[in-house]
Amino acid sequence: MVVRARLLDRHTLVHALRGYRSYFRTDFWREEAYEPYRAVDFNVLPGRALSNRTLALPAGRDETTRSVIAWDDLLGERRPGAVFLEAAATSAGSPGQRPGTQALVQLTDLGLFWKRTGSNVWVWAYSYHTAQPLPGTTLRLVTDDNEVLAEAVAGPEGGASFGLAPNAVWLLAEHGNDLRAAELRRHELYVEASEIPRRYEWSGPEPTRQVLLFSERPVYRPGETVHLKAIVRDREGEALAMPADLTGHFTVRDARDRKFHEADAAFSALGSLAGRRGAAGAGTGTYRAALRLGTNEVHTHYFQVQDYQPDAFELTLPVPAAFAAGEGFACPVRAQYRFGDEVSRGTVRWTLRAEDEGFAPAGFEAFAFCSQVWVSGSPYRSESWTAEGQADYVRGTPLVVGPPVPLNAKAPQPRAVEVRVELTDLNQQTLARGARSVLHSSAFYLGVRVAAGLPQAERPWPVEIIAVDPAGQPRAESIPVRVRLERIEWRTVRQQGAGGSLNYRSEPEYVRVSEQDAITQVPVWTGRRWEVPADAPPAATLTAPAAGSYLLEVRARDAADREVVTALVVYVSGAGMTAWDYRNPAVLDLVPDRTNYGVGDTAQLLVRAPFSGTAVVTVERDRVMRSFLTRLNGNAPSVAVPLRVEDAPAVYVSVMLLRG
User: Fold this and answer.
1) Which end of the chain is more exposed for a tag (fewer CB within 10 A), N or C?
2) Counting beta carbons within 10 angstroms of the beta carbon of residue 645, is it exposed (0 to 12), middle (13 to 18) or buried (19 or more)?
């Protein structure tokens, strides 16, 4: 067997990689295709020959031997290089019948990761060995024919940014004598905006104009006026802009494709259009409204025209929007013919579903209420309950659907109740209606806020506690509460899944840290939200002994001795190692100290990391706006991200953790 090697350089690597794609193209129709690979002609491959040696094969059939070819012998001691290797038998026969194998190997210390949008790509170069940035790395975007489209040199932190040409296929990096090529479409990271990728793979180019054409409802009766509306935006890179001096033409056709309305359309300066667009025709069926912008750009909207009759009777469910604690659920059922008489008799079938929905009063967004714990195995899980039944409807006899609805005993909170009632009268006419109400569990609810933002281990952090009634108003009197802090000890076990993949199973164990009595505070209205006065002493002060996850529980009782509970998970940052509920060892969880910030604030992000290392932090929206490096020690560190004016109204923060 002959083993040959060829060294590839910047001018030949992309050509070799492109040619190597054909190695995996299977020609099943060829009789001589005994294996699912298609060899690349070594002699026409560009590059400098490194080796040409002959290896002795075993004499017998089905015998194996192992031959080692050291990289240092091919390239020199500890030298990188891109090498094309071929091992082929020297026996007679056509090339397709000779057993052999080929490989293209990039022996490199150049690590790359990149993020891209439709018009920009951000690249960071680092060392696989040290996980440190490689400033001075030359980065090139090239076509499939190795034509250089853009070139940049990595800055002090290893990053560079390019404008992305449509025909860019390869990313080529060069640092000293180290060379690395990567295909842009493989292993890329997306710039996250609205939590979805900004670039989509589909068969055609992304349209530059976005048009939303709609009506105020989907069904009309013959002769009714149709109100059509349109919103138009032009895409400029990754942004949307309002078009200037936009005009259009409307055409509406009936179900038989007959044109019965036509008018010109003038858009506002905001790129929108609203107005009456003619009456629905006399015929029924599917109608089509077409908006023409320019000569060939046509956008359509379909709506129905149907001649329908009103219901024979009216079914109403006058259920209140909410029930106070202790009242119980009750839904009256009333049926009235349109001529004024009450339905004499009928059969009522009802279904009811009740599920926990928590408590979130307006103006108290900074506070947590009821159960905010979604940890597996937690006693504070949300619950649901269903019931159904049947009853006779008799004129003059009040009918109320009101089964006893249980509340969540372990995590008391408001329960949303949805009831659906179906009534069939003596004429076998059936009508159904639904209603929704809220069943409160107590006379007030406890709001809890960790005022310190992101708590640090071994440092005291204040806790604010307030009481709010079901109407969303704070209680003026102080209420005694019991505060308990428990550490969540995760027992994590690695499991082997299908195909040898690894995943984790984590089970929580709760260890009590501290418990104390406290009283609620009285918040004040600041014009935008309810806040505890800055000079007010904290309701409680807690200290976590180490970094990790903690369960904070606050309990009280109302005047009727009903239990009130608020529980939430608090993440504590600090040095050292702790156990997390890992699900994927390659995924980081970022926990912000709060959800809303102002210009000039600094966001503190807890990083639930599997190991220590160098982290690349990027601030993103439709592109990578800025980036910086930081060192994360332990597996519960925090990252500080100062926020600027240009970050409004929202930005996304991404952390890439590297370990050499």
Assistant:
1) C
2) exposed
